Amino acid sequence: MRHDWDVRTFTRAVLALVIVIAVTAAALRVGANAATVGFAYLITILGIAVWTNLATALVSSIVATGCYNFFFLPPVRTWTIQDPANWVALASFFVASLVATRLVVRARNEAQEAEARTKEISALYALSIDLFTATNRVGALGEAAARALANVGAGGGGLILFGSGPYDQRTISWSGPPQEEIEDLIAGIARHKATVELPAMTGRDVYLPLKIGGNIIGVLAARGTNATVRALESAATLVALAVERERFLAESAHMQALQEGDALKTSLLRAVSHDLATPLTAISLQIERLRTLIHDPSVEAISEETARLRRRIENLLAMARLEARSVVPRPEPAPAADLFRAAREHLPLIVESRPIEVRVAPDCPEVYVDPSIALEILINLIENAHQASPAGAPIELSAFRHPLQPDRVRLEVADRGRGIAAEASDTAHRGLGLEIARSLSTASGGQVTLANRQGGGAVARVDLLAAQLPAVDEVPA
Q1: Using alpha carbons only, how large is the chain's radius of gyration in Å?
Q2: Closest by CA position to 289, among listed 123, 52, 117, 121
Q3: Considering only CA atoms, which of 235, 229, 161 is closest in space to residue 195?
Q4: Cβ atoms of residues 317 and 440 within 8 Å
Q5: Bridge partners of residue 159, in order along the sequence
Q6: Cα(146)–Cα(238) distance, rounded to whole angstroms?
Q7: What angle do helix axes 2-30 and 54-72 make, rounded to 10 degrees?
Q8: What are the mean pLDDT values of the chain's consecutive 10-residue runs (477 residues total)?
Q9: Cis bond leading into 75, ω under 30°?
Q10: What is the distance between the alpha carbons of residues 342 and 357, in angstroms, rounded to a whole number?
Q11: At what angle do helices 84-132 and 297-323 cross, to 10 degrees?
């Protein structure tokens, strides 16, 4: 791989020099003046900077400066410059080419770094969903470690937990080449609480301490990986959360299954949301800085996906607060049409990309719900419908009195997507947005159900309490 990269770099460097020579030959052939040739050289250097690396662009700048002097500044075909103004022109051209080359390469590198960070946060987001939606059972630590190692592209490694001391080590899972004489290395990581990196034949071997509450509970070994330390440490944090969750499960085995699952889900929601919010804020700041340097559609796409991920994390935090009863819903009568209008205003990109059809039955009562919670429910369901629908297909929003329960209002979000497959009973296939909508609906005294619809597609139904109007005494005629 390294040899191929060297050959490719050398080939591009040679082609860059050939391009500079070709521009020189073309300018000589058409008899271009010095000013025109200077602009042509500058454009050529900028193109080479975008196409190759900084070193090649700098060498090309030097070669172009030499050709500019030798062939176009009088006396031509000598290295002598008689007119002092030409010295200024030559120096200005050289400085301009160097500065422009540096700026182009820097902007390209920052764009690549932003793209790499987006991929990292996407992988961590997928891993957090995987861990969050995993079955609540003892013995899944090996699977969690394998998922984490796969997300960071490790060729092998595993999870080692500590017991009573750093030398009381228990291997939970291991894959790839066998571990050889690493007991002292693992114990040293427990004592010093620091990540250790070692060179390997492919990539490097990274041993990451798993920290919970300031204590080291184990080590995640990622062997043969090229991932950044930041991505590896975030994956290790998620694995540590998985370890802590299993410990909670083991210690709470005597409790009722429903109470145990609710407590663990709330704890995991808080921890995952908090741990993802900090790196996400840093990424958002870097994206805004990048937007001031370059104007590229990919930067806007990265910003949009980051905002979507931030909204998911805020939803998780809201769920955690509701389940912990630190926030109490404040229901009030709310017209369904107002809720639909607010949802459309919060999703401008979806509204611009496809029709949103709204129907409210004339006899539909107002909904008795906390408007902010109802808005989050609708936003998550509309985003799910948008993801499942083909381009340009409409999303239909409907509101009417429940056909079987007159004291309830039914809100529907319908799409023309793939519909609900048989495996949709698995939370991982339904998506986190639907789970958030269901949890928020349950906290508001309602429920969310899914069904296929005639003609293809699916419909999500939200059943909420209807607002009861105060009785009005009849006025005698």
Answers
A1: 31
A2: 117
A3: 229
A4: no
A5: 173, 220
A6: 12
A7: 20
A8: 62 81 84 79 77 75 80 78 64 69 72 67 63 54 75 81 83 75 82 85 85 83 83 80 74 60 63 68 79 75 74 69 67 93 89 91 93 90 88 92 93 89 50 80 89 89 86 48
A9: yes
A10: 14
A11: 30
139: left (phi over 0), alpha (psi -120 to 50) or beta: left
Q: Whole-structure pTM over 0.90, yes or no?
A: no
Cα(56)–Cα(39) distance, integer angstroms:
19
- Residue 294 has a pLDDT of 77
Query: From CA 99, how far away is CA 102, in angstroms rounded?
Result: 5
Are 134 and 117 a contacting pair, CB within 8 Å?
A: no
CB of 314 closer than 8 Å to CB of 269: no
Residues whose CB is less than 8 angstroms from the CB of residue 232 and which lie 6 or more positions away in sequence, other chains included: 152, 195, 206, 208, 222, 225
How far apart CA 442 and CA 367 sit, in angstroms, is 15
Element (H, E) at 279: helix 257-293
- Count Cβ atoms within 10 A of the Cβ of residue 393 and give its class: 0-12 exposed, 13-18 middle, 19 or more buried: middle
Q: Which two tokens stand for residue 332?
A: 């009030």
Amino acid at 400: F
Strand partners, 448: 462
* Helix axes 371-388 and 297-323, enclosed angle (nearest 10): 130
* Distances in whole angstroms, Cα of residue 92 to Cα of each of 48, 86, 106, 445: 19, 10, 21, 72
Q: How far apart are CA 298 and CA 304, in angstroms?
A: 10
Is residue 252 classed as helix, strand or coil in its secondary structure?
coil
pLDDT score for 426: 42
3-class secondary-structure state, position 180? coil
Ordered by where they begin, the domains of the chain are 2-82 (no CATH), 119-323 (3.30.450.40), 332-465 (3.30.565.10)
Residue 270 is predicted with a pLDDT of 62
Q: Find how far residue 471's CA is from the centre of its chain.
A: 52
In the sheet that 447-452 helps form, which strands lie side by side, from edge to edge?
356-360, 395-401, 408-414, 458-465, 447-452
> Helix H segments across 327-468?
336-346, 348-353, 371-388, 427-430, 432-443
Residue whose structure tokens are 């999303």: 395
CA dist 136 and 259 (Å) reads 12
Per DSSP, the three-state class of 233 is helix
* 332-334 vs 156-162, strand pairing mode: unpaired
Q: Can you tell me the distance from the alpha carbon of 59 to that of 63, in angstroms, rounded to the nearest whole number?
A: 6
CA distances from residue 356 to 99, 112, 353, 378 in whole angstroms, order as listed: 49, 36, 10, 13
